Amino acid sequence: PGAAEAVAALLDRAAGPVLTEREAKAVLAAYGIPVVTETLAADADAAVAAAEAAGYPVVLKVESPDLPHKTEAGVIRLDLRDAAAVREAHATILANAARAAPQARINGVLVQPMVPAGIEMMVGATRDPLFGPTVLVGLGGILVELLRDSALALAPVGREEALDMLGRLKGAKLLDGFRNLPSVDRDTLAGIVQRVSELAADHAGRIAEIDVNPVICAGTRQVAVDALIALRQPLAPHG
Question: Residue ranges of the ATP-grasp domain (predicted)?
């Protein structure tokens, strides 16, 4: 109940129909889903200070309720290894944001530690008009659209059903350590799927879509490094 109430309050404070990445991660964290640590920096000096506190290498992302698709807008820079790189990236991504969406509200720049490589998974939820909330898990990162390898179930799911979803993936062998890639602890990942499904079911009246991609997984170290949550919009009155 505490998590559901905390999330309801977060959703009430949202500035638009799509939560910012930071807001979305706060929602996930309330349900016990591991998310990358981050600091919102107001300017380049603050970004450098945050990077030095986090430890290099770092990632910079523009934080805006009007730029949900950050890769396409060119407002992310990865693997920044010193203060000069952070300052240059800070200027570049803000310029790209202004070009992509001149009217966008900019809250600042998120500074995150670069999460070590692992298997990239995605966990999501949508609302089916007939069946209600559904949860989805599949291979993530840039592979999502290429492979379209995912498993779907009605939300919420228990731990056993979440494990079964992982077993249904065509790429399930990847989770067990393929070639030189790390293995993925299935029980930990099933727990994330279960909690996303509970979040979607508990807030089915408010949340239209959850997209946690990627969750970077290596053994039991599994962390969501990006997230998008879209809210359901009230129906326009007729007449």
Answer: 25-61
Q: Is 119 helix (H, G, I), strand (E, B) or coil?
A: strand
Q: To which residue do tokens 């029980």 refer? A: 187
Q: Is the peptide bond before 57 cis (omega within 30 degrees of 0)?
A: yes
| Token pair recorded at residue 52 | 């030095």
Contacting residues for 233 by C-beta, under 8 A, at least 6 apart: 17, 208
Query: pLDDT digits over 38-49, tens only?
Result: 999 999 999 999
Residue with the two structure tokens 């977060």: 10
Chain CA centroid to CA 33, Å: 10
**Residue 238: what pLDDT?**
57
Domain boundaries, the chain: 3-35+116-231, 39-113
Residue 28 parent element (H or E): helix 21-30
**Residues contacting residue 55 through CB under 8 Å, at least 6 positions apart:** 113
What is the average per-residue pLDDT within 60-87? 94
Q: Partners of 15 in the beta sheet?
A: none
If one counts every other C-beta atom within 10 angstroms of the C-beta of residue 141, the result is 16
Asked: is 39-113 a CATH 1.10.3380.10 domain? The reply is no
List all residues 6 or more positions away from 138 whose beta carbon is below 8 Å from its beta carbon.
121, 122, 144, 147, 148, 149, 150, 151, 169
